[in-house]
Specification:
About 35% of the residues lie in helices and about 25% in strands. The chain has about 260 residues and is α/β, with parallel strands linked by helices. Helix 6 links the parallel strand 7 and strand 8.
């Protein structure tokens, strides 16, 4: 069967295009015409209150939810036009860091990180190549010395980093972070924020960071997009978005800024 997956995206091309997207659930209008274009190598933080549709937005980028209206173009592919097989190929190019890092407790750190490689029958790497890839991913998150430990030996912040290393092993072109600092103390949060920047530099990834942690947004992103009442009402640098007289944005800032 002909595959529609496009593999090369030049630096100037947009990596993610969200065009006039609507999404409702049983009469609840969550997204009411969102627009956002993200170019290669850019980190964009999506900010918004709990329940505003942030997770719905990134689920649409990986085809877990379909828009009711509008276009979602990821790495040159119109998500709605792909079948399951094509979607799975595209998903392999996208790293998804969930709210809970969900490591396999019975597997070592090495086995956890190698999992995306070993589960995928198409990667025919030998043992040494797999170890090398795991070490590279562990170096990226600064935890190479934990390779033979078990998840239960690690702190919450370390587990989160291991979860990120596991997504990095496939060298994703896009990283999606859903609330990367939620539930972490300020010091661990700042380590994760630094890691998100490091990943952008090391892997030249394009990232969306979903958060309501303003420190995280400020420290990790090139631009922020405010999701309010189902629309991106303000998109720009952190300072551009928050130097505003808009009451809703000012309120969001005051209720969420934790320093
Ligand atoms: P958040 O901004 O906190 O990530 P979500 O994107 O998870 O919010 O959810 C936005 C709204 O959409 C919520 O009211 C949620 O209950 C609803 N929602 C999300 N996914 C579904 C679904 N699969 N079915 C029905 N309602 C959903
Ligand atoms: Mg969410």
């Amino acid at each position: 069967m002909e595959t529609k997956i496009i593999t090369n995206v030049s630096n100037s091309e947009p990596v993610i295009v969200i065009n006039d997207v609507y999404k409702s659930f049983d009469g609840l209008d969550v997204l009411k015409g969102i627009n956002l274009t993200i170019t290669k190598g850019e980190n964009v933080a999506v900010l918004g209150k709990s329940g505003s549709g942030k997770s719905v937005t990134i689920k649409m980028l990986v085809g877990l939810l379909k828009p009711d209206h509008g276009d979602v173009i990821v790495l040159g592919n119109d998500i709605t036009s792909l079948n399951e097989k094509e979607l799975n190929l595209l998903r392999m190019r996208i790293g998804f860091s969930f709210q809970s890092s969900a490591l396999y407790d019975s597997m070592s750190i090495k086995q956890n990180i190698a999992f995306p490689l070993t589960m995928n029958s198409k990667t025919k790497l030998n043992k040494n190549e797999i170890t090398k890839a795991v070490e590279e991913a562990l170096d990226a998150v600064g935890l190479r010395d934990k390779i033979d430990e078990m998840p239960s030996d690690l702190s919450g912040g370390q587990r989160k980093r291991i979860g990120i290393a596991r997504t990095l092993i496939l060298h994703p072109e896009i990283m999606l972070y859903d609330e990367p600092t939620s539930g972490l103390d300020p010091i661990t949060s700042s380590e994760i924020n630094k890691l998100i920047k490091d990943v952008q530099q090391l892997y030249n990834t394009t990232s969306i960071i979903i958060t309501h942690d303003l420190t995280c947004a400020r420290e990790t992103s090139n631009r922020v997009a405010m999701l309010l009442d189902g629309k991106f009402t303000s998109v720009g640098t952190f300072d551009e978005v928050f130097k505003t007289e808009d009451e809703q944005i000012k309120n969001f800032y005051h209720y969420n800024f934790i320093q």
